[in-house]
Design goal:
This is Cyanovirin-N. It comes from Ascodesmis nigricans. Pfam families: CVNH (PF08881). InterPro entries: Cyanovirin-N, Cyanovirin-N_sf. This protein has a single domain, classed as Cyanovirin-N (HIV-inactivating Protein, Cyanovirin-n), CATH 2.30.60. 0% of the residues lie in helices and 57% in strands. It contains no helices and twelve strands. The strands form five sheets. Strands 1-2-3 form a three-stranded antiparallel sheet, with no helix packed on it.
């Protein structure tokens, strides 16, 4: 389930994404996930499956854009030469609400035409 559509009070502090997410019973529960465990910085660009983006980032921010449809993480990321680049990443590409918990989807296949979503999660 899309975390930004099923959650409230969504925010980012450093690399920690926090919110109150709805569980299967409809209750709001506190949840958080460390984005440094799943997002890296590859020469000044966000990289899914990397680690520790915040170690080479400045001005980290979060907002929901596009009429409430897109949860965007923004930061100035340092490249290999020490220059900073303003970058963004759509967190809904890989972060979901699973029964009131943030979960990172390591692999995602989406077929928009058929409305299918297949994801594999590693524990």
């Amino acid at each position: 389930m899309s975390f930004h559509l099923s959650g409230e009070n969504i925010r980012v502090r450093g690399a920690i994404l926090k919110a109150q997410l709805r569980n299967m019973g409809g209750e709001l529960v506190d949840a958080e996930i460390n984005l440094d465990e799943f997002i890296g910085n590859n020469d000044g660009n966000f990289e899914w499956g990397g680690e520790n983006f915040s170690q080479s980032a400045e001005n980290i921010s979060f907002s929901i854009e596009g009429g409430g449809e897109v949860p965007v993480l923004r930061a100035d990321l340092r490249d290999c030469e020490g220059n900073y680049h303003h970058r963004d990443i759509n967190l809904s590409e890989r972060v979901e609400n699973i029964d009131g918990r943030f979960e990172f989807l390591h692999w995602v296949y989406r077929n928009v035409r058929l409305g299918l979503l297949l994801s594999i999660q590693y524990q």
